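User: Please write out a complete single-protein record containing the residue sequence and its fold in C-alpha cell form, without commentary.

AI:
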Amino acid sequence: MTTGMTRLGSITIQYCPHLTKLIFNFNRLKSLSDSLFSSLQKLRTFQVKGNVISHLLRQLLKNLLSLRAVDLSQNILTGVDGELLSGLSQLDIPTIVYTIVFFVCVCGLQPDQCPLARHFPLLPEKLDGLNLCSNLISNFSSETFPSRFEELDLKGNRLVQLLPDSFGRLTSLPHLFLSMNQLIDLPEDFFGNLTALQNLDLSENQLTSLPRTIFQDLTKIKIVHLQNNNLSFLEAKLFEDQAFLEKLYLSENDLQTLPQGFFDAFFHENVMRIRRNDWSCDCHMLYLYDYVAGQGQLVEDISNVYCTALGL
C-alpha cells in the first residue's frame, strides 16, 4: 500500500488478527509503534521498504513466531538493537532467504562500532541466507556470518578491501554476491574455505588482477561474473580446477589478450561474454581468435568482440 502516510499505529490494524501479510512500502513512515504487532500473531510477511524510518524499538517484533520475511530496506536506519531480533529465534525457515536489509554503518561509524556482527548470532537458527544489498557496509569480521548460510548478498555496498578469512566459516555457501562494491584486489586464498561455492558475482568492482590460485580447489563453481572491472591480465591456469564451469563473464574489462591454455581446463562447452575489451591485434590474439572461430556460438554478443585494426 502506497498512500504517503506518515504514521502507522497499532489501532490501525488491531481489528485484523488473522492478517498474514502487511506491506507499506514507499510511504513516509518515520517510526513504528512498539505495540504495532500486538494482535498479529499470524503475521508472516512485513514490508516497510522505502520509508524514512530512523530507528526501531526493541519490542517491535517480539513473539512474532509466524514471521518469515521482513524488509526494512531503503530507510535511514543507523543501527539496530540486538534485542529486536531475539524474539525470532524459534522461526522455522528451511528454504527461503531472509530479507532483512538494514542500513548500518552509516553516519561515519567506524568498523568497530558497526552493529552488523552483534546481531547475526540472534538470527533464526534455520536461517540459510541473508540479503544485505544496497547498504553502506564497508567492513565485517570473519565471525559475522553463520556457517550455515547458503546465500549471501552484499551487492552494492562499500567494500574496498577484505581480509583473507572474511568468509572462512561459510563452508556450505553456494551463492555469494559481491558485485557493485569497490574491491581493488583479493588475497590469493580469499575463497579457500568456500568449497561449496557454485555462483560467484564479482562484477562492477575495481579489480585489476586476480591471483593465480584464487579459485584453487573450488571444483563446484558453475558461474563466475567478472564483468565491468579493470582486469588487464588473467593467468593461464586461473580456472584450472573449474572443469565444469558453465558461464564465465569477462566483458567490459581492460583485457588485451587471453594466455595460451586459458580454456584448456574446461571439459564441456560453456557460455562466455568477452565483449568490449581492448583486444590487441597482434600475434598474441591468435589463441583467442581460434577459440572464437571454433566456439562462436557460445560467445554471447560476438559482434562486440573485436580489435581495432582487424575484425574477429
